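In this supplementary section we document a worked example of the pipeline. Step one takes a protein sequence of length 423 as its only input; no multiple sequence alignment statistics are reported here. Step two produces a three-dimensional model, which step three serialises into structure tokens for compact storage. The input and output of this example are shown verbatim.
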Amino acid sequence: MTIGDGLFACVGVGALGAAVLPRLVAGRPLSLPLVFLVGGICVYLLPLPLPEVDPVDDRLLTEHVTEIGVIIALMGAGLALNRPVGRRRWGTTWRLLGITMPLTVVVTALVAWWLLDWPPAAALLLAAVLAPTDPVLASEVRVGEPTEDEHDEDEVRFALTSEAGLNDGLAFPLTYAAVALAAAAGSGWSTDWAGSWVLEDVVFKCVVGVLGGLLAGRLLGWLFFRPRSPELRLSEHREGFVALGATFLSYGMTELAGGYGFLAVFTTACTIRAAERAHGFHNILHDFVEQIERLFTAAVLFLLGAFIALGGLAALTWQGAVTALVVLLVIRPLSGWTGLLGSRLGKWERWVVAGYGIRGIGSLYYLAYALGQHDFPVPERELWAVVTFTVLVSVVLHGVTAGPVVGRLDRLRTASPPRQEDT
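The serialised model returned by step three reads:
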């Protein structure tokens, strides 16, 4: 027997597990990501001749694997949302993006600067990479399959899904800010980079990202539903794999134009939904993307578990562990609550949205990407240890509690009519 034979067997078991486990753990204090994360730890603790897993040494591979996982998840999130984009319809989302996310980043950076004694650039980098939320790691708190009714999704699941779809892209300007600060000031502080950062990394790249997504979405929406010839009308062929083509086209085209591909992919998915909102082809596209997403999530979390088992947390200090816990248990919940004051969410719904700012694959991607752009004045393994520990705690905490908490919330919502204002 060779290592390759064992890997084939592991891949086969993993793929079957990714198909079976979601149904077995649904509604229970367990989640598929948690199972694969623990599985990776347990397998790599066995005395077996397994290949090394080290995202620090294999930074480029880590970046691209997590990059693919994120853009596939973004396409799935956009296709699942039934609600048309609008100022009031997406009011909860805009609050989470405009108030909660910046507040979380600022406070996290201050905590890292004070508690970890990290230079400003490293503190800002940690805050930036922990900014994106990732509901794919707890399926109970995200929107399900596409339906024809724009009201067929509760505000909690919609808020968390739409927030994740957009803040995965909006974390890029923050990451670039950390890179620019490291380049300009090293271990100190400087504002020389701020002007060009605002113009290029915030305004230009965000605008190009949204416009690229709209253009790709309009083009693909027409190609899916509008051609007179059935041979060209892709919705007639009911082939879900074209969702991957849409994802990669939108992402690649926008990145080539200098914009944020993450924003473009989510915008493309929402635009495709708007092209023919009630068509059953959306379900085919979404189901295929969800299956690929599940495989990627299982693989990445298994490998993360392997990294932990091989000593990935060896560089973690008690200050780093406390910082991670404070981000998950204090900063995000209170920032979320603050951002949602005055919203139409009820008290308990507001706490659930505020508390389930799940950290996951997006954080791993941004850290790998940033460390490839510039050196930061802290050890890379310490950065990886803090981020890995944050993701580990998030997967365990949110994976165990999501099913019971959201189930309880659903029962409360059924038992009593929704209240428009409850601050």
